[in-house]
Description:
By secondary structure, chain A is of the alpha/beta class. Chain A contains five helices and nine strands.
Amino acid sequence: MPTKTVLGIILSGRGSNMQAIVDAISAGRLANAKVGVIISDNPNANALTRIPASDIPRVCIERENFKDKASFEKALIKELRIHHVELVVLAGFMRILSAEFLNEFNGNVMNIHPSLLPAFSGLKAQEQTLNYGVKVSGCTVHFVDDGMDTGPVILQQAVPVLENDTVESLSERILHVEHILYPRAISLFCEGRLKVVNRKVQILEKPEK
Amino acid sequence: MPTKTVLGIILSGRGSNMQAIVDAISAGRLANAKVGVIISDNPNANALTRIPASDIPRVCIERENFKDKASFEKALIKELRIHHVELVVLAGFMRILSAEFLNEFNGNVMNIHPSLLPAFSGLKAQEQTLNYGVKVSGCTVHFVDDGMDTGPVILQQAVPVLENDTVESLSERILHVEHILYPRAISLFCEGRLKVVNRKVQILEKPEK
C-alpha cells in the first residue's frame, strides 16, 4: 500500500478550500494524501467546526497569545510536527510566514491566491482585479516563499471577468476553480511530480527516483 | 451604406498584426473598417512591402530624421491626418507616444501586448513570462495611455504556457491569438460598442446614440 502524504492545513477564514481538500480525499481524487491536522489562528472562524463527522484533529492557535511572531510560529511548527505533517497547506491563512518557518518544512508549503499571479498579489485581489478592469483573471497555486505571493507557480487556471461582475460574483467564479485546482496541485506533490528548478515548477510525467 | 472607420496602422517590425487586420477586412470579418495608411518608423521592416497587391498608402517616417520626439510625432500626426485616420492602431510599434499625440486622437489609439496585462508589461514580455514561470499567459488589446502598457483593457485571451516552451514557441502560440483578438477589438470600436468609464472598458450590446 502506498504511503500517504500528511497534510497540515492552516487557515484564518471560513475554510472552503480546506473543505474542498477534505472532500477530494473522501472522494478518492486525492487518495495519496491525508489531513494530519487543521489549524486556525481565528477562534471565530467556523472552519474548526465545519466538518462535524470528521475525526481530523483541529487546533486553534491565536497570535495574540504569543509575545512575538517567532514564538507564534514555533507553536505552529510544534503542532504540525506532532501530527507528522509533510506538506503545509495554507487555505486562507492571512499571515506572512517567515523564512525560518518555511525552512522547517524545506519549502513544502503551498498557498492558493485568487488571481493570475504576478498580477494582483496581496489582499483583496478580486477588488484589485475589477478596479484595474482586466477581462481575464483566475487563480494560482504556488509554493510559498518569504515574499508576498511571489513563490514558484505550480498551477494556474484562467476565468473570465464578466461585464457586470461584482467582487462577490467574481470571487465565487474563482473559488469554484480554486476548489478543483488546489486538490490537483496537492495530488501532484504527493505523487512526487513537482520539481522546482530556478523558481520554475516542472510537472514531471513520472516521479524521479 | 454604413461609413467605414479609417484606421492608421503604425509599426516598427514585420507587421504580422497589420497583415491580420488587412486580411480580416478582406475576408469581411472587419467590414466596418478600412486602412487609410500604414506607417513604419523602420526602413528595414519588410512590413511596407508585405502586401504587394494592396493599394493602401505606405509611408516610412524615421525617428532619426527629426531633431526631437515632438517633431517626429508631428510628422506622424500630419500623415495620419492626411489620410483622415480615426483610430490609430499600433502593431508592433516600439516607441512610447506622448500625451499630446494621444490627445490629438482623443485617446482613440489601440495597442496589443503579448501578455495578460498588468503582468509582464514592457519589452520581451514572453521572456519575462517564462522567467517568472507562470502556467497561463495570453494577450491584451488595450487603449493606449502615456504609461507603459497601462491603458484601459479592451479584450484579453488566455493561452497555456507549456512545460518545454521556448520564447519562440510561446510567442507563436500567443501571436495566433493576437491575430484573432486585434481585429475583433477594432471591430467593436468601429461599431461604437466600446465605452471607457473610470479606466474600465465596457463592451456595449448596442452602440449608444
